[in-house]
Amino acid sequence: MTRGPIITTAxxxxxxxxxxxxxxxxxxxxxxxxxILYRMPDHPSFLxxxxxxxxxxxxxxxVLQTFIDFxxxxxxxxxxxxxxxxxxxITPAELRTIGAEFRLx
Length: 105
What we know:
Mean pLDDT: 83
Structural class: alpha+beta
């Protein structure tokens, strides 16, 4: 007796209608860019630059602090300096709720 092919289906994931980056912006996160200068482990007199970018909260920058803690714990390059730029992409003036909707036929 021959059987046909066995067909299995994976569970279907429904995508969120709102992008996670947009949701974070609505929660007050802004685009944060950090220019990290660090010393090369083999040549400490040389500086190397690493650019880090993510959504973070001003002024405490908890996401950046987590990354810096990871860097200090796991990466051999000693930190020299960090420059941070931050910009909220969505401001309260750009996002308004609609109180009513009127339709004219």
